């Protein structure tokens, strides 16, 4: 009786699930079809829906038919292919890693492909489309392997994003350095990196479609193994599934599909993250979508709807002549940034990395010795920076310049070089102090202005002014940078405060804000005059080129105020960095003190960005190194971190403008190359 009672109950449930899956799939197909139809009717040419219909039925004017066949249909088809491929690749990566934040973006696949194609472009070799896809595949797969190796599969959603985002920053910095050094060879590569589905004919689509189809077929053959992995590694092994081989195969296939999309349209950001997330609620209501065999195609349809919907939205909101210059990837990156922020407020993860130097006690003699060595290092680097460059000088030339007796050539060189050196020294010191304050207040060793999106907001404000008001002065740029930093910091700290600053969600929200700021910056650079674009790109690389003494004055004043405040309230910094209860037991207003330190760190970051552009990881590396050298007392940490930051940025600026002279690389690019390995090292150490 029991068997006959339960069996009928099971069958309707399965049938209902299949019916629901079919209905949802049909709805997704109708949505994608509707977006595709609308997308075909949009463009700069006066070819509307009636002309498109005539072109498809063979009764249109030859000029209208040419527009539809050569441009609009290929663009729509590319959007379908790219969205579907990225959606399915993201779903596969999330399934095998059991990580809802895994995607080609968060695994640095796109950044690896960008760097690989940039290296090929620098050589001047022109590759056919298939060969370019192979290069992109190799770069993306290598980057994904590094991120997955560092973060560990299934060990935490936040850790994977931290590793992927940090590696993305480093790889992108190297690529942007090549853009500045080889502008002719890499012409158009920056705009390509923003992702655009615009096509000239069907050649590219026809060549990349088989690669995407091969990747999909490979994933479909592995669906049972992927479903088994969802039960856990031990359970999958008990079912006879080779866990490691399955994961490696899926990552390779997903990277291959991502490479096809990147080759065809450039990196279309965050489709692989958002599309599976849109399908995930359906899987909780319709059981069939919980299986990979049905979930993958659904994620592909959601990805196609995202890409085509972004393209339709862009062309509906922005005038056609302007929309044609804005890559679709900028819109999807903005959507992905919002999605990442929303996910960050919901994801629960560990409180963060516990620092190994928490209980270390250093002697006063060690502190004095370290300080003396760092003061000597700062003086040595500063003197070397003043003397070395495209024109080498002697100390006697500097003394004559100080006394007003130098020749015209020496005067010109030092008038332009000394402000650069001062800007690098003060910017490094300010960013190091800002990082020290943020890490103390949030008790998060991974927090720093660039990682938290504060520098990105400041950069957005400054670039907005640079591209719209090219003749704006240093005080105007500083004001715009401060406004951008203020908005981004309110957003980041406001969202993260609800879950406690100790949570890694603070860093995750910061990455989301930084991503959104980067997308808006890219749009501004693409739409502006080429001269302003070059100026903005140079400034974004952290260059001190063209700085004058008036540019340095705001930073010097803010740094003095910051040092004075940190010195006066050093005991409060020590208490705030311990825990939540100790400051309250001693009668301190934790909320007011925390807010004051955060505001000070924002002001320091904004003025540093205004004076020297975006320079990342200094606020991360300098405080860590300072605590390792002199312990955790902020009376000692602050001066040591400030000296370390000044030395690091000034050295990076010196190396960037002398090693490959007369060409120059910004200090921000150099510090990103240094800071990325250090950040990844911290992730590995915290996992242990």
Describe the structure.
- The chain has two domains: 19-54 and 74-195 and 204-346, ABC transporter involved in vitamin B12 uptake, BtuC; 377-687, ABC transporter involved in vitamin B12 uptake, BtuC, CATH 1.10.3470.
- The protein contains 29 helices and no strands.
- The longest helix has 39 residues, at 2-40.
- The chain is mainly alpha-helical.
- Mean pLDDT is 79; it is low at 1-12 and 350-359.
Distance between the termini: 55 Å
| Fraction of helical residues | over 70%
* Overall residue-averaged pLDDT value: 79
Computed structural class = mainly alpha
Shape: globular
**C-alpha Rg, in Å?**
27 Å
CATH-assigned homologous superfamily of the largest domain: ABC transporter involved in vitamin B12 uptake, BtuC
Overall number of strands: 0
Ranges with pLDDT <50 over ≥5 residues? 1-12, 350-359
Provide the domain count: 2
Kindly provide the name of the CATH class of the largest domain. Answer: Mainly Alpha
**Major beta sheet, specifics?**
none
CATH architecture of the largest domain: Orthogonal Bundle
- Enumerate how many helices there are, as a single number: 29
CATH topology of the largest domain: ABC transporter involved in vitamin B12 uptake, BtuC
Following the backbone from N to C, one meets helices and strands in this order, namely HHHHHHHHHHHHHHHHHHHHHHHHHHHHH
Strand content: under 5%
What is this structure, in a nutshell?
This protein is mainly α and 688 residues long. The protein has 29 helices and no strands.
